[in-house]
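Entry for the shared binder. Reason: the reviewer on the internal report wants the predicted structure included alongside the sequence.
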Amino acid sequence: MTALLKKLDKYVQLALRCICIALFAVLALLLIGNVLLRLSGDLTRLLRGWGLEGAANLIRAILPITSFHWLDEIVELCFSALTFYGAAAIWALKGHFSVGDWISKRLPGSVSRGIYKIIVNGICIAFLVIFLRFSVNLVARATELSTVFQIPKKVMYSSMPIASSIMLIYSLTELIQNFIGLKREA
């Protein structure tokens, strides 16, 4: 059973990493495209100012797009998903900064450290349950569509309940491990 869970954990972490890398790549490509588009507009204005109308028209023929008017929608979608899936990926690796690491080292005995970890984990679980509940409600009540692509806002908000569910599963697993460890120490 533990081999299956470890394999599942490996695939979940791989999927989260791939999602984050893909989202970051999309954001980078959009940024580069937007900068190049602005530079091409500046270049055509400069060429027209110098009287090189033919060269300016050639650039406009090659790059007929004048703006990425839809850019905000895709950036919003990518950033929201990157934020929450990135948080879940770091949560799965236990990579978030934790004041508990500093405090638990100063507690006497392994039992008190185990109890402290259970309390901190319980607080995290309580937060994640509340976050999951409110994010599911947000997704359920969202009725708006994005302006250009008509993407339902539910799609943009869906990363919150998915990521919080992943983080909650990892937190519950850690809580169980903390209880087992505490039981062994006692």
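Summary line for the report: Residues 2-185 form one domain.
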